[in-house]
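call fold target=Major facilitator superfamily domain-containing protein
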Amino acid sequence: MHDTEKSDTEVYHEDHAARADRPSNQDPPVALVDPGQENPVPNGGLQAWLGVVAGFCVFVNSWGLITTFGAFQEYYRTVLLRGESPSAISWIGSIQATLIVMVGMVTGPLVDSGYLRILISCGSFLIVFGMMMTSLATRYYQVLLGQAFCVGLGGGISYIPAMVVISSSFTTKRPVAIGCASIGSSVGSVIFPIMFRKLQPTIGFPWAVRCIGFINLSMALVTCSILCRRPGKRTRARNLVDWNAFQQPAFMLLSVSLTCVMLAYYIPIFYVATYARVKLEATKDFSFYMVSIINGASAFGRTVPYLVGSRVNPIFVLISATAASAVAMYTWIATVNIAGFIVWSCYWGFLSGILVTGPTSIVAHPVFTPDPNYLGTRMGMMWGISSFGSLAGTPIAGALVDLENVSFVRAQVFAGCLMVGASLLQVWPTISAVRYDRVK
C-alpha cells in the first residue's frame, strides 16, 4: 500500500514538473483543440444522406416552383391577367425568385445560431399556405401576395438552412450531394408545368394550383420529419453580415458574378413558353412543355459535371458553364424553327442546372469561407447579393421584349452580355481557389 501511494505521489510531481518545464510560448495540448470542430465532418452516413433527401424536397418546393413560372406566366398573360403587361406579370416570378435567395441573408446566420427547426417549419408552412392562397386569386395583387411574396419567403426560409445541413455533412462528396438534392428542382419543374397544363382545362385554375399545393405539403412533411429531429448546431456566428467577407476579393467577385448570372438566368426560363408560342408559332401545348424540357435537361447539369469532381475542380465547372451560357444566349437568336429550339432548350437546360448548384457547392471552399462556422452566413450573403439580379432581370427583359413586333433580340443580347460579364468576374475567384489547392 505504501509503494502504491508513493507511486501516485511521484506521478503527480512528475506531471507538475513537466508542466513547469514546458516553454511559456507552448500551448498545452488541450488548447490545440478547436471547440467549434470537435467532431470531423462525416462526409456521408445515414444522417447525412437523409439530409440530402430533405434537401431534395426543399428544392422541389423552392426552385422547382420558381422555374415552373414560365407556364404560369403564359396562362396569366393569355387568361387570368390579360389586362397586365408582360413586364408587370414578370414581377410575380421575379419577386418569388429574389426572395428565395435574398432571405438567405437572414436565415444563414440564424441557422448558424441553432434555429434550424424553426426555420424549416416556418418556411414549409409559408410555401403551402402561399400556393393555397394563389389558388383563390383572381386579381393581380392577390397573385402577387400569394405566389410572389408568400411562396418566395417560404422557399427562402427553407433553402439556405437545408443547404447548410448538406454542406456541413460532406467534404469531398459535397458537390455530388448538393447535385443529388438539387435534382428536386428538375423533378418539380418538370412535373408541375405538366400538371398545371393538363389539370387547368379540366378542373380549373383553382384546383390545378391546389393539386400542386398538396404535393408541396407532402414534400414539406418529409422535410420537417427529417430536419426538425435535429436541434441545430450553435456556432460563433451571430451577425447577419460577416464584414470580413467584404475584404476578400475572391468572395465578393464570385458574389457579384452571380448577380450578373441571375440577371440573365430567368429570362429564358420565364419567356421560353412565350417565345415558342409567339415567335415560332408553336401550339399552346408544345409551348407549355418547353418549360418541362428545359428543366428536365437541367437534371443532368445538376449531377453529371460533379461526378468528375475528383478530377476537375468544381469551380472550373462553374466558370465553364457560365461562359457556355453566354454562347447559349447569343445562339438563342438563331433558333428560328421548332427542331432547333428543342436542341437549344436541352443545351441551355443542362447549363442552367450547373449555374444553380455550382455556387452552393463552391462557397464552402476555404478561399470563400475561411471559417466553416460561418458557412450559413457566407452562403446567405452570396445568394443575398445575387438576389438583386433575380429581382431586376425579368422585368427589364419584359420591357425589352416587343411582343407586338415579335422581337426578343434586345432581351437575348442583354442576357448574353451579362453572362460574358459574369465569366470575366469569375476569373480571379477561380485563380484564387486553384492557388490555394496547389499550396495545400
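return ok
The chain is about 75% helix and 0% strand. Residues 1-38 have pLDDT under 50 and may be disordered.
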